[in-house]
Amino acid sequence: MENTLHIGPLGPWDLAALALLVGCWLWIGWRTEHPPAQRPSVGRLMEGYRREWMRQMVTRQPRIFDGAMMDGLRQSTTFFASTALIAIGGGLALIGNPERITDLAQDFALDEGPKLLWEARILTAVLFGANAFMKFVWSHRLFSYAAIAMAAVPNDAGDPLAYPRAEQAALVNINAAKSFNRGLRSVYFALTALAWLLGPEVLMIVTLFTTAMLWRREFASTARRALLDNPPV
């Protein structure tokens, strides 16, 4: 019976904490992107504002503001992608030298456990960071596609292709934002996974706190209430 409760160095509490971490990450991502119709998330509300942005762009002359906005969005993805890559490198360095972590555990009187357990805990955070990096890179690519689609929108509002192409640009922009938000969620849970170094019980508590924080920001924040006033149709 004891063997069935262990997978390698992971005991039953470690497995439960890991399952909770992954489950909450998947659940909050799905709930944010598929909210109830009567209670839209901030991400879903922003989709309407992105469509309205593209519609307003059709008649805006010149379009310098729109180009500056896209540059800012691309720079944000570049910053977070670079940060995630640095964090991945740091995590891999720790995996290659876990003695530093075990020495720290001794200083704080924590349960040392086998080195493979510490490596598994660090690797979990690294994997979330790697997922974040890939999401940010793809988001940067999509924002570049959106900029090109915006440039293809005719300047003449009377052109029959003006608003259809604006809608196409909006859809690419929306998908870029989704990928960016997925990357941010992975960063949140990568940081949460570091709590595992203090033990599985701490990881469970921090996981629930992070999930509640993300839910509040998407469904009960001041920003959401502001976006609900006069939303675009």
Describe what you observe in this structure:
- Helix content is 76%, strand content 0%.
- It has 233 residues and is mainly α.
- The chain has one domain.
| SSE topology string | HHHHHHHH
Termini distance? 59 Å
Shape: elongated
Pick out the low-confidence regions.
Answer: none
Question: Which value, in Å, is the CA radius of gyration?
Answer: 22 Å
Give the secondary structure arrangement, pairings included.
Blueprint: H1 12-33, H2 42-59, H3 64-96, H4 99-107, H5 115-151, H6 162-193, H7 200-219, H8 222-228
Helix pairs in contact: 1-6, 1-7, 2-6, 3-5, 5-6, 6-7
Quick synopsis:
This protein is mainly α and 233 residues long.
List keywords for this structure.
233 residues, mainly alpha, 8 helices, 76% helix, elongated
